Amino acid sequence: MSTPVVQYVLPARVVSRADMTRLIRELETVDNELEQQKARHQGSSGHYQLPTLSQALSDFLTANKLDVGDDHVRLDLKAQLRKLKDHAPVLHMTFATEVDPESMQSITAWVRRELHPQALVSAGLQPSLVAGVYVRTPNHVHDLSIRSFMKDSRKLIVEALDQLKEPAV
Amino acid sequence: MTIWWLSFIIGSLVAVLLGFVWIAVKLGGLQDGGAKSKGGKKGKSVADLDKAYSDMAEEDVNHLFNKEFREELRNRGRLRFERIIDDNAMFLKQDLDMTMSQINEYMKEQISAKLNTEFANYSKAMSEAQELTIAVLQKTADDLQQQRQALSESMKKGMTAHEANMMKNFETNMAQVVEHYVMQSLGEQFDMRAQLPYIMKQMEDHKKEMLEDMLL
């Protein structure tokens, strides 16, 4: 019987599954470091010397009010993060141009605020979209690009041509 | 004709010679006859007389037909003979000229007739060849005209069909062409920050569908 996934708050810097993987790897590195300190009896008093954490891990720990110095917390966090990485809903978003980190964080924040708090977003690039985004949810695709908009509006051009072909009264 | 004229000339010469011979014989006969008629009447005197007459006659002959007279006769005969020869030569020349002219006329007629016949045949053959060539050319021109008409109609049909097809394709693909043009024109113009409001608005509009899908 598997334990339910804890509803962690993901920071804005953790956007994609790759970010989650990096987060887990860093957490494992921190755990190893702290275990080594424990083995060397440096942390026997319960005060470990924490290594330098990345901004993403630091934001994650802060947002979830977690103490990484606690062995149980670290153990549970690693398991939960692995589960989260495997089960969090992923939103694939394809853009027409390269996405800067600020825009990506802004979009991710909207997704987690409006759709799912632990959603992960993976970004792709397709210049033929012209502008807009092509969103692929777990079961559906939503073409929100200019290309799709123009394709839907193609009948307007045909109607305009038909009007041009009619003799002027 | 030449042989006849030559025979005539020779005959004339022979006749003149015979005339001279006849005159000489006649004169000789007259001389002999006179001597015979006088011989019976008187014997010796007759003979003498005859001799005297003969001498006289001979003398007269020599007197009448003396050297100048004979020469005169000879000259006259020569002149006569020359005149006859000239006349005959003139006749011969005239006949020859006439013959030559006749021969020329005959040759002209024959050659003209032959040439006319040959020309007629040649002209007929040329005319037939010309008619045949004209017929062949006419047939070729008709065939070409028919082929040209067929080709023209075929090309016209093809052009009409092609034009209709192009118009159909144009009408069908015009929107796609415009869309492609707009895409190519605007594709590089929007950066992400410019697109972000549009993206957020579109996602907001489709939030409900995405939310339902995420919560499944």
Largest interface (CB within 8 Å) is between: A-B, 39 and 32 residues
The protein's oligomeric status is heterodimer
Reading the helices and strands of chain A in chain order gives HHHEHEEEHH
Q: Tell me the distance between the termini of chain A.
A: 79 Å
Residue-averaged pLDDT of chain B: 83
Count up the domains of chain A: 2
**Quantity of strands of chain B, as a count:** 0
H/I helix tally of chain A: 6
What would you call the shape of chain A?
Answer: elongated
Structural class of chain B: mainly alpha
User: In percent, how much strand structure appears in the residues of chain A?
Assistant: 5-15%
> What's the gyration radius of chain A in Å?
24 Å
Given the C-alpha coordinates, what overall shape of chain B results? Answer: rod-shaped
> In which order are the strands of the major sheet of chain A placed?
2-1-3-4
Summarize the structure.
Chain A has 169 residues and is an alpha+beta fold. In chain A, 49% of the residues lie in helices and 13% in strands.
Which labels suit this protein?
A: 169 residues, alpha+beta, 6 helices, 4 strands, B: 2 domains, rod-shaped
Could you explain how this protein is built, in words?
The complex is a heterodimer of chains A (169) and B (216). Chain A has helices spanning 17-39, 55-64, 71-87, 101-114, 146-152, 154-165, and strands spanning 90-95, 120-125, 132-136, 141-145. Chain A has 169 residues and is of the alpha+beta class. Chain A has a four-stranded mixed beta sheet. The longest helix of chain A has 23 residues, at 17-39. Chain A is elongated, with a radius of gyration of 24 Å. The N and C termini of chain A lie far apart (79 Å). The relative contact order of chain A is 0.14. The model of chain A has no long low-confidence stretch (mean pLDDT 83). The N and C termini of chain B lie far apart (147 Å). The mean pLDDT of chain B is 83. In chain B, helix 1 packs antiparallel against helix 2 (44-64) and helix 1 packs antiparallel against helix 3. Chain B has two domains: 2-129; 175-185 and 189-214, no CATH class. Chain B contains five helices and no strands. At the A-B interface, helix 4, strand 3, helix 5 and helix 6 of A face helix 3, helix 4 and helix 5 of B.
